[in-house]
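Let us practice reading a record.
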Amino acid sequence: MRVEDHAPLAAGADDLCLPVYVFEPAVRQAHDFDASHQRFINQSLLELDASLRQRGAQLLLLSGDVPEVFEKLHEAIPFSRIVSHEETGNAITYKRDLALKEWTRRKGIEWLEYTQTGVVRRLKSRDLWAGKWLERMTKPIIEAPPRLILPPHLDNFSFSLMPDAVSSKVTQPGGESRAKETLVSFLSSRGRNYQKEMSSPLTAESSCSRLSPYITWGNISLKRVYQASRQVKKAEWQPSMRSFQSRLWWHCHFMQKLEDEPEIEFRNFSRAYDGLREDEFNQTYFQAWCEGMTGYPFVDACMRALHQTSWINFRMRAMLVSFAAYHLWLHWKPCADFLAKHFLDYEPGIHYSQFQMQSGVTGINTIRIYSPAKQAAEQDPHGLFIRQYVPELANLPTQYLARPELTPPLVQQLYGLRIGVDYPEPIVDEKLALSQAKERIFALRKTAFALAEADRVQAKHGSRRT
């Protein structure tokens, strides 16, 4: 949803060109789609259409299953070629691509797909992947075509957005111009202390790039972001820029996993962990986690912030997943599906790979268990974030904010707070829950099957950055 650094659009400028966007019912009705996603898409499409009209074209918006939509379009305006970007999406879009490929084969229509990230189709080995990623990121930026020529006979088609569903979330607005503004503000001022300030939710909101939704929905290319970051030459910025560029690399590294093995949207990377949590899923725990009512204020504050804004920084995302996986012993799949709807920057390849990694079921990654109280002390020492998003605790003295259940009854009475009534008791005993979780996960990791699976997963998906 952009005109700059868009290889298919540039290729289409060589002939009659009809830009098309299809609203797909299967995508919009899926478990991982949210009203906030639709609003962002609509905002992006409005700006895209305006940019296309400046170049003599317009955006054709259609609705339906893609092969059927293209069949009707082909009957009205015969075409011989489709050009698009490659996509590494969820199972729904993967199935759609297979169906479209079959349709183009039957109709004798050429379909050219252009790369837009570091993800490599039909990759045989990860050994040389890092070099391929860098090669792609350093290719020249493709300028927006100055002129596009529409085919005739478009009178029967109209520009009609899919209505926005009601969403109370305050989210970033979509659009190519917003993406560019965000990039400029990050690389000119906000990103100077990125490396130091990206972990705390208090500072990350402004110090993180905030480019992720624009990259996810195609308002700006990863290549443009990478090359712009390389243009920052100030010495004091370099630690932050190196850290940021590293995360651009990791972005594609995790997407490559889903490209290579689409089944990880549904099943564990390592089959040794099958049945580990899914066979005893606690719905009560899951509901409390979803609602931000676990009795662990820092966890609840992060979840509630996500409900309101559709964004939270990476460290806090990792804590939410860790808490679900180890403290509550919840299977990653339902938790991942829930958060997919709430992340405005939801990218399936990153999302499911990260969820499994943070849940300890890849078999190759270090087990990371985050203590909510420790994270609160380090990332929110004065309780500002907790007070903002867990207002029932707003008047509580800072010393009790991370563990309100330890507040003496007289202090609770003094501040008009009743733990267990106004705010829940901790849903689990942390010490006991983690002891049981560690015993089970580490015992499984030592089994012969788990070790063999770890070797298999490492060979297929492990990082080869050096």
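A brief commentary: The two ends are 34 Å apart (CA to CA).
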